[in-house]
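Write out the 3D structure for:
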Amino acid sequence: MKRRDVIKKVSLLPLAGVLPLQAVIAAPPAAGSPVVNSAGEKVDLFSELGVTPIINALVTMTFLSGSLMLPEVLEAINTTSHDFANMYELQDKAGARIAEMLHAEAAMVTSGAACALTIGTAACITGNDQQKIRQLPNLPGPQKEVIMQKSHRYLFDQAVRNTGVKIVDVEGAGEMEKAINENTVMALYFNAADSSSITHEDFVAVARRHNIPAFIDAAADVPPVENLFKFQKIGFDLVTFSGGKMIRGPQSAGLLFGRKDLIEAAKLNHSPHECPIGRPMKVNKEEIFGMYAALKSYLQRDHKKDWQDWLDRIKFIGNYLSGIPTIVSETRIPKGPANAFPSMTVTWNQTKVKITPAEVVKQLLAGKPSIFAGGRDKLSIGVVLLQPEQVEIVAKRVKEILTPAIQ
């Protein structure tokens, strides 16, 4: 997982002893444990399918199934799975409540932020024109265009190009101004890009002068919670966030919110309508309820306490490893905007402890339990996705691997 180059490093001060884990954080039991089925039997589907459960000691990644859903999200899914619902009504009413929570004109739940990119772009092309909705991605006439900064091109602009548009690269507000023409339907801003030649404010200003929607992809950009409101205040017409990252909703859910006319058009380009481009990207009722519950919970959380809990986890692991000769543990806080939360790095003198960070990563993943960490020159350990009892498990396993390598 790529990290930002500019980080804040804070050395951990050695303490007299290791903090008791109970003082670090309290949370529900670990996910993935055996459950009881309707016959009263314990069922472990990981074991039944031969799938290895993994402790994610890094960051949210789709190939590692994102993050873990909050208990209230699981409750929302379980308590709504026993009845049918009219999906048009559910999307409308859940969207209205989500919009209210986000201080937006309108909102909807999508099957991830990538889906939001596709149907948001479709909305900018078609509006509520049913003929255009049926024709996407093969509209007759000149190809439609979307403006992006060159430095903002990324893998997920494929989700935009799925609608049949051509992406036009620009550098600076002047080039953006000149690139807009009668075929331009949207301007897309990738918030987590390494660099930008146009500020958020100038990007929106140019788009507004030409009456084209400005869309921002901020999929992984909470925390801080304020980002959920920031980009609307700047003036972006459409905003998307992933639901399955730090908001901790369903991994296959996302949020799209902004201008009401565009959200209504996005709904027309999405399931449960039967012919639009977004039909294969359907989101079920449990995901909509789950996403609603996740956002409600996230907005109500004590984010300062969460941040301190993460720092306490880092301190716990650092102190657990402090007896290893030459060990240095540091807190890392990427500048963001993506994954802007505390993690840690661990380094040591490899002439005194004869093992590389890359080998430690390999052994962590191959061990039982399997632990996913990162790093080549430094061992990178993420703490925000760990269950409470896993903090000590990770610390213990790292120590077990390092100790035999001491010379």
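DSSP finds 14 helices and 15 strands in the chain.
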